[in-house]
UniProtKB/TrEMBL annotation:
InterPro entries: Amino_oxidase, FAD/NAD-bd_sf, Flavin_amine_oxidase, Flavin_MAO. This is FAD-dependent oxidoreductase. It comes from Saccharopolyspora karakumensis. Gene3D superfamilies: 3.90.660.10, FAD/NAD(P)-binding domain (3.50.50.60). GO terms for molecular function: oxidoreductase activity. Substrate binds at F331. Residues 17-430 form the Amine oxidase domain. Pfam families: Amino_oxidase. Belongs to the flavin monoamine oxidase family. Its cofactor is FAD.
């Protein structure tokens, strides 16, 4: 039961991984915390639910893979709650569509030196980031250029470029010419400066889906969660602030963590207004509109893997069902304007571009872009925007701290590890503010 007359130490807006972990950590430190979540579930861009027509088969439609040896914050959470993980098995069959040719290897042998040149360029640029330090604390602003501009000096041949572009679209969710290479490079740094680890390093998943972790965090801390409370206004005064929800509820708090996707920050009315820099940075959406389809297939060797320039830029195994069918994930982007991920026939055509004998039994999909509380997938910036965005969003703002993977200035930004990293930082700032304001 919410005590409307009470002044909470902290109001947290947004019940994704960042918001939940921040609320939990503040409770652990003895603070009173209320968490407002606009929808009726926790997790935001983490979303596990049964596959269409298969009530016992849970599928992760959003965040899925982790690497516990490279991601210390995820590793801590997993061991704290004793959560079981499953390691992906190697693919049972592979197909690549690069340079206009369907092939069983990523590129023709004659292009191997070109691919090596491209990987070396990625690696060398990634060495300029320093994992463990904010990406904006090192002089890397000149790397905030488009993916096209980054590779242009190499004059890469078609198949190599198709392979690299497929990696970019899967991760970036849009056309490589329109995306900054900055986040890709920081991630190569996170992956030990190994660009080829980009798609082979995150191979562990949560048994039973990722919501297991979020539920454990809330149960453990006793954080008060208010579902269907969409924050619409944050009014700051001299001694505290009031958060107003769309259902008329108003809650008083001393400090506030805003842990919502960057695309929806502008729908909250901040009074007084946020700094001009922040207002400018959240005025329009970032570029990424990724699509992740869950596809039940048959007539396909187990655990397929595909990558290339066709409609799906990557296909990988989801879950073997043991009845001759398997759920696979197909990754694409809304920039293929004419594609409807719910259209079984169309999805089948796209799968057959890599695996001609495959039969698609059913397709399922969660439209993160159509969800007004998320409005997109993971933040990828326009060229020239990434460094500025991270700098500005992490600047102090009286009584308000932003959190969430979109604003995380570690090398793990965009991933779940980034959500945890941003939350840890926000908790540190808020704890300091609470001490300062009560001193
Ligand atoms: C398709 C897809 C695949 C992914 N795959 C991976 C992967 O394999 N591995 C990995 O590490 N990461 C992956 N990610 C990224 C990962 O899911 C995110 O990094 C992480 O979930 C972000 O957490 P967050 O707390 O920052 O934000 P979110 O999860 O977006 O949480 C924000 C919350 O705020 C709520 N909200 C919004 N506005 C308001 C408001 N006004 N008032 C109250 N509540 C509000 C939303 O409903 C939401 O619950 C994937 C993401 C997607 C979309």
């Amino acid at each position: 039961m919410t005590d409307l007359d009470k002044t909470y130490d902290v109001a947290v807006i947004g019940g994704g991984l960042a918001g939940v972990s921040a609320a939990r950590d503040l409770r652990d430190r003895g603070h009173s915390v209320v968490l407002l979540e606009g929808s009726d579930r926790l997790g935001g861009r983490i979303f596990a639910r049964p596959f269409k027509g298969l009530p016992d088969v849970s599928v992760d439609f959003g965040g899925t893979w982790v690497n516990t040896s490279m991601q210390p914050l995820i590793r801590n959470e997993i061991s704290r709650y004793g959560i079981a993980l499953k390691e992906d098995s190697d693919p049972g069959c592979s197909a690549f569509h690069t340079g206009g040719v369907l092939r069983s290897v990523p590129i023709p042998a004659r292009e191997i030196p070109d691919l090596q040149r491209a990987l070396t360029r990625l690696r060398d640029a990634s060495l300029r980031f320093t994992p463990g330090h904010a990406v904006t604390s090192v002089p890397v602003r000149d790397l905030d250029i488009s993916v096209d501009d980054f590779f242009a000096p190499l004059d890469l041949p078609a198949a190599t470029r198709d392979l690299l572009d497929a990696m970019v679209v899967v991760y970036g969710g849009w056309n490589p010419g329109a995306l900054s290479v900055f986040s890709f490079l920081s991630q190569v740094a996170a992956l030990g400066n190994e660009p080829d680890a980009f798609y082979g390093a995150l191979t562990e998943r949560f048994v039973g889906g990722l919501h297991v972790l979020l539920e454990a965090m809330v149960a453990d801390s006793g954080v008060e969660v208010l579902f269907r409370h969409r924050a619409v206004a944050v009014e700051r005064g001299t001694t505290g602030l009031t958060v107003r929800a769309d259902n008329g509820v108003a809650l008083d708090a001393r400090e506030c963590i805003v842990a919502v996707p960057s695309n929806v920050i502008r729908h909250i009315d901040f009074m007084p207004s946020l700094s001009l820099g922040k207002v400018k940075m959240v005025a329009e959406n970032h570029m990424s509109r990724a699509i992740k389809c869950a596809i039940r297939v048959r007539n396909l060797a187990p655990r397929p893997f595909a990558m290339g320039s066709r409609g799906f830029h990557m296909i990988c195994s989801g879950k073997e069902l043991g009845d001759g069918t398997e759920i696979v994930y197909g990754f694409s982007s809304e920039y293929h304007m004419d594609f409807d991920p719910r259209d079984r026939e169309r999805v089948q055509d796209w799968v057959r571009e890599y695996f001609p004998s495959a039969e698609v039994v059913e397709v399922d999909f969660h439209d993160f872009g159509a969800d007004p509380l998320l409005d997109g997938t993971y933040r990828i910036d326009r060229p020239g925007e990434a460094f500025e965005f991270l700098t500005v969003m992490n600047e102090p703002e009286d009584r308000i701290v932003f959190a969430g993977t979109d604003v995380d200035d570690s090398v793990w930004r965009t991933w779940m590890e980034g959500a945890l990293s941003s939350s840890r930082k926000a908790v540190g700032v808020v704890t300091e503010n609470l001490h300062r304001h009560t001193a």
